[in-house]
Amino acid sequence: MKLQTVQGTPLSPYLVEIRRRLHRHPELAFREEKTAALVRRELDRLQIPHRPLAGTGIRAELHGRQAPAEPGAGRPCLALRADMDGLPIQEQTGLSFASEHPGLMHACGHDGHTAMLLGAAHLLWARDFSGKVVLLFQPAEEAGNGAGRMVEEGGLDQVELIFAGHIDTHIPTRTFTVDSGLICSSADPFAIRIRGRGAHASRPHEAIDAVVLASTLVVQIQTLVSRAINPSHAAVVTVGRLRAGTVLNAIAEEALLEGTIRSAHPQARTALRQGLERLIQGVEAMGCAGIELEYLPGLPAVINDERAAAIARSAALRLVGREGVRRQEAPSLGSEDFALYQQEVPGCLVRFGARLSGDPAGPAHSGRYDFDEQVLEQGAAWLAQVARQGLLHLEGSTERR
Ligand SMILES: [Zn+2]
Ligand SMILES: [Zn+2]
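Above: inputs. Below: predicted complex with zinc ion.
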């Protein structure tokens, strides 16, 4: 591929430069100020109008120059989304462009996603399409409900279809994973507070031991996935944090358990939530303690719309041919807030292959994470292509009017 920027220079080195600049300066959820400033500067250079959204987010619009196929027909509108935030992780890659901020790192490829969407802006700049392409630069994918705020503040105004991609270092560069249906699981974080009765370590008969009840609950939770759901539905329940007690010679009065339920099937999600509530009632009755369960804000599953997935697949086929377009082996039990856009409009999230050859880098969300930068041009090209094809599809679709 030899794609060019609007200025006539090769696109790939431009994208690498943007990605590396972002990589050196990762910013956490809703603090993507420098990142957003860079995006605004690049959009200004292209004279693409934009407005702030969701704190550090940006919505930009590219209006096509072509007239609608039928006079008087509505102008279609579609969105492309990139996430911009980094993670509180110490980088250990030793790369020349490694993070300059201790304890902060782009360890999920969002630096790449942001560069790709700017690349798509260059490729769509000639406006050789009918309708409107909305570019959504979203804050806080990793934490903090960035997509939810983008939606609340009008990010999807007029938008009828939405697309995005995520870099995936499990699959080779020049391949895309495109599926309809379930892509990423729902995520239901929870907190359980156990209130027992404290006492001297030697006088258990005067106490309600929160440590014993918390331990019982942790062990019982292990039976949820094995006993409460259909074994063909993927799911996991993890207690990631357990805190109890203050000193070794006192029976703990309180305990706090925090964890997450991930499930790749709505039935499993319901069964796990109900199962957890049942277990809590049982342990509460057994221990004569007070136990509260609180669900923290979670995310629904990413479910790709069939039509949107067909458009996404067709765009990928154009770029890499049949051998480059795959299907996922199984839905991921990771979550993605792209699901919140899909609650509003049909959409499709794909994966961009970016496996480095030779010595494998670390996995996403690790300090050794890195990806093959050739994916940047691939991703930008796919975003531009899927926008063109999506608009054509919307224009031809009668359901829209
Ligand atoms: Zn991530
Ligand atoms: Zn990510």
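Residues 108, 142, 364-365 surround zinc ion (ligand 1) (CB under 6 Å).
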